[in-house]
Amino acid sequence: MAENIAITWRRIPERYRLAGSQCMTCHAKFFPPRKLCPTCRRKGKIESCAFSGKGKIFSLSEVHSAPAGLELEIPYVLAIVQLAEGPKLTTQLVDCREKDVKVGAAVEVVFRRIRSDDPEGLLHYGYKFRLVK
Amino acid sequence: MTKFGEDWKRGFRDLILEAGKKALEDSNLHGAEIDGLFAGTMAPGPLIGQEHAGALLADWMGLNPIASTRVEAACASGGVALRQGFMAVASGLHDCVVEGGVEKMTDVSGPDVVSALGGAGDQEWELFPGATFPAIYALAARRHMLDYGTTEEQMASVAVKNHLNGSKNKYAQFQSPITIETVMKSKMVASPLKVFDCSPVTDGAAALVLMPLDKARAHTDTPIEIAASAQASDTLALHDRKSLTELNATKVAAKKAYEMAKVGAKDIDIAEVHDCFTIAEVMAIEDLGFFKKGQGGPASEKGQTALNADISVNTSGGLKACGHPVGATGIKQAVEVTWQLRGQANGRQVDGAEIGLTHNVGGSGATAVVHIMKRVN
Ligand SMILES: CC(C)(COP(=O)(O)OP(=O)(O)OC[C@H]1O[C@@H](n2cnc3c(N)ncnc32)[C@H](O)[C@@H]1OP(=O)(O)O)[C@@H](O)C(=O)NCCC(=O)NCCS
Ligand SMILES: [Zn+2]
Q: Of these four, A21, B118, B214, B263, which has the most CB atoms within 10 Å of its CB?
């Protein structure tokens, strides 16, 4: 789905810097940041936090059938990465094919172009991950 | 229900009208007796540019001015609509409700369908970074293979069984049997899932009628009782769950449904489960309690879920072979179970089916709805 400038602008802290949040009551960390802790609800006290960008591959798949806008990217490796601080996220792994990577491998965040809406449209940037050498 | 498939000649309205007419004929009912309509449809906005489907359907089915409500819960829209109708009748507020489910998916291009279906997941945090629906289930499948040793061949055996059942169902989108090789050699979609591990893109509609049991007896000699209806939720994004290999919403809904119907997993003769991908059926037959966690793959491979085996799973051909017009699926599952319980499933009848279950999932498991249906004697 194409995004307008306001949507993209609103998400810059999370997409560019992995900005997250944590519940000071139960110490759970959230990415993307939640404004309500699902465990403590109104008793939770939410503060912002940052993630180191280090993590491990939790699961992965090589995508061969593209969604609209990513036709030129296929095949690409999609993964669920578990951050060192606990939360998991869905992301692309760069500079690799599926045969080069394994579940459990250490990865780190990189800043990349995610997609462009159309030739004249917005370019969207954000996080992807790569293997730690 | 309508024949499921790619139906270029007919639109949204034609499909639901045919299904609705057939349901009324089957129930010996006049339109004037109907006082409510619930319709499951997931994405008429992106797929045909139409919202306000509740009003549209009452209008085109000639049912104005009855209350008509569209229900949306991604691929579980039909099952959740069924539950809304069940509650409306059980509460006494409605006496005779039509349940419809419909999706017209082939009026837009392939990538546009993929994007519309993506709306069932987390648009901002799964789809935007590059996930597709097959890829989300592929992430679950990969983990299931690692944690339990499930193999691609075991998953393929689900598709083989469902295509065989579909070959006996004149309403199914795919009516040709396939082999393990067909699946293994089909094009990769999102590894380890291949085209034949996926449900297809489908046009179709299904409908049925709900009323209190005593009233239903006046219309038919073979009423089917809904003995339980239960629903549960989970995180929208797959990655937010502790485990990728079980659907907690399915487990919770199933437990409540078994309690409500006072039966156990062992009592179920037939089940229509949500096999949007082969791995989804493997997980469903585990989470519903038919097999232990991790045994869904081997059980499928050994034929324990085939027609008239230990438990007959997806006698209609499931989403895989019968097709998956998303909003219609939950209603179609209940239609198939009704036919089976009445002994009308020509060519694929399960002997002595008394108790049936339907299991409908939205997205990657953020919504699950389970119904248990019984023959009444
Ligand atoms: C699997 C999928 C990507 C295939 O799409 P595609 O590659 O564009 O396939 P096409 O429409 O070009 O069809 C090519 C051929 O494969 C067949 N085909 C398509 N999907 C199929 C499927 N799932 N199973 C078996 N055969 C299939 C078609 O009938 C067609 O056959 P033909 O050449 O004999 O006419 C698509 O069906 C899909 O996205 N499925 C998932 C739907 C989904 O996510 N549903 C929601 C679940 S929650
Ligand atoms: Zn908390």
A: B118
Question: Residue A120 and residue A99: Cα distance in Å, rounded?
Answer: 35
What's the structural domain count of chain B? 1
Domain membership of residue B7 (yes or no) is no
Residue B149 lies in a domain: yes
Question: Which residues span the domain enclosing A80?
Answer: 53-133
Tokens of B216: 């239903």
The Cα A26–Cα A49 span in angstroms is 14
Query: Of the residues B201, B250, B277, B364, which should be mutated to test ligand 1's pocket, given the most ligand atoms within 8 Å of the CB?
Result: B201
Q: Which two tokens stand for residue A60?
A: 């992965």
**A92/B142 Cβ within 8 A:** no
Q: What residue has token string 């104005």?
A: B64
> Before B65, cis peptide (omega within 30)?
yes
* Count of structural domains, chain A: 1
Return d(Cα A81, Cα A30) in angstroms, integer. 14
Q: Give a yes or no: residue B347 inside a domain.
A: yes
A33 within 8 A of A48, measured Cβ to Cβ: yes
Q: In whole angstroms, what is the distance from residue B204 CA to residue B41 CA?
A: 11
> What is the dihedral angle through the alpha carbons of B31, B36, B40, B46, rounded to the nearest 10 degrees?
90
Over the stretch B289-316, which tens digit does the pLDDT of each residue have? 999 999 999 999 999 999 999 999 999 9
pLDDT in tens, B87-117: 999 999 999 999 999 999 999 988 889 889 9
pTM: 0.97
Tokens standing for A1?
């789905």
Tell me the CATH number at B159.
3.40.47.10
B-chain CB neighbours of A73 within 8 Å are 130
Which residues are B265's β-sheet partners? none
Report if residue A43 sits inside a domain.
no
For residue B210, is it left (φ>0), alpha (ψ between -120 and 50) or beta? beta
Residues of B in contact with A2 (CB under 8 A): none
Q: Is residue A23 part of a domain?
A: no
- Quick check: CB of B114 below 6 Å from ligand 1? yes
Q: Are strands B224-233 and B204-210 parallel, antiparallel or unpaired?
A: unpaired
CATH of the domain at A66: 2.40.50
Tens-place pLDDT, residues A61-117: 999 998 888 888 999 999 999 999 999 999 999 999 999 999 999 999 999 999 887
Which residues have CB less than 5 Å away from ligand 2 (the ion)? A 23, 25-26, 37, 39-40, 44
Structural contact between residues B319 and B358, judged by C-beta atoms closer than 8 angstroms = no
A61 lies in some domain = yes
In a domain, A2, yes or no: no
